[in-house]
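Data deposition worksheet. Section B asks for the primary sequence of the deposited chain exactly as it was used as input, without tags or linkers unless they were present during the calculation. Section C holds the resulting structure in token form. Section D is free text for depositor observations; keep each observation to a single sentence. Incomplete worksheets are returned to the depositor.
Section A, Depositor: J.P.
Section B:
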Amino acid sequence: MLRLRRVLAISVWFLVALGVVVPLVWLINNRDWGVMLMLLVPLVVYSLMRLGQLLEGWANKRARPSSATDSGSTLH
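Section C:
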């Protein structure tokens, strides 16, 4: 299950990165006003890094074992 989560996390990040970066690069390259979009590039890169960190945390998260003594209390 842990390996499946890692594969899913990498796949999701790659698809999101591809879906954001390719149109951004195309607009920067092909439109006169696209140069102004270069101001967004640091924000896009930072957002992709944060998404990667969140997906990494999700992929490495282990399922908490349920025990008979845990009755659903909020204090652990």
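Section D:
Residues 2-30 form the longest helix (29 residues).
The helical segments are 2-30, 41-60.
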